[in-house]
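Entry type: protein chain
Record version: 2
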Amino acid sequence: MNFLSEIAGRYPGALSLAAGAPYEGFYDVEDIHRCLRRFCEHLRADRGYSEEQVRRTLLQYGRTKGIVHDLIARHLSVDEGMDADPESIVVTVGFQEALFLTLRTLRRDARDVLLAVTPAYVGATGAARLLDMPVHPVAGGPGGVDSDDLVRHIRAARRAGLRPRACYLVPDFANPSGVRIPLDLRHELLDIARREDILLLEDNPYGLFPLRGERLPTLKALDTARSVVYLGSLSKTVFPGTRVGYVMADQLVADGAGGSVRLADHLARVKSMITVNTSPLAQAVVGGRLLEHGCSLERANAREAVFYRRGLKRLSDGLARRFPAPCPVTWNAPDGGFFVVVSVPFEVTDALLERSAREHRVLWTPLHPFYDSPGPMRQLRLSCSALPPDAIDEALDRFAVFVRARAAEDGIRW
């Protein structure tokens, strides 16, 4: 991720099909002030706070679990059909802290391992490695995850004396593959989690952006045995700059005194030693945005959802026009989200990305960092989220020239 940022900074004239960031054209600084005012009104009118309490809520440290946990619980009920206890939610500094807290709490000693469906988001596998928690890759495939391979990895790890604590996965339009796990396989994964006594760590940053309007229930919404820890991010649906995420962990675990507490309480203890709390000002902006739309991020992002659907279609249709069959360049067809995976007839390296930026003024993302195995691969990721439609067309024109030029060096023409 640092390398991509460095390349983008080094070549500011390059159009980026690499960034998975949301489109900035919908943002305005006034939105921050408006949302902040709306949250303050909520504190006064709905919670009965005095002006002194409002000031303290915004400007003091605040509770470790957060000050908008109840609004996030309402959002999960309205948009996802979850029965979420607000006290099972910890508001975090983005998704990254939510995952870090979860993994740190689950890791007890060197025997603990994480399973991750590949290709896997590098922020997730990187967080595990920072905690010295080995990552065992589970095959993905056209359905999003190979359930038989998941079971094989769980049992093989246990035979080796290891403890597979959880499996990280993105059921809806995963980064980078764009794949969505079908409903029947979601039920099968929950059965495996119950039978094998393993947690599923569900990451869902793209679920509100299906290509054709249909949405599937999250794993957590289907979870009746508390087998799923739900990791949320508001970066794609509110503002990335607020750096607000959350984790819903309603599992009951031993408290060391013969009783039990929520897993969320353990996460909060860990958080109190790392970031203490999540910025109340940032939470207030998020809270105001939720309140403006009855705590429905689906309603709040109706305009954005249309934009991303059009962008994904423009990206896919644009590839088809520039690389008509028969052609050695192919790509997948995601049902939503931001990403398309492209296969090319040459090796994709970081050095080649820099050359693309320098000579053709277009950025994309190599796929090899998303896999556990080293070495170059012949795949890359394109994203539709950060550019307006006309810029997507221009970026694809540059990308097509780059691909043809690089392939011609190996004598490949079409």
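Comment: DSSP finds 15 helices and 15 strands in the chain.
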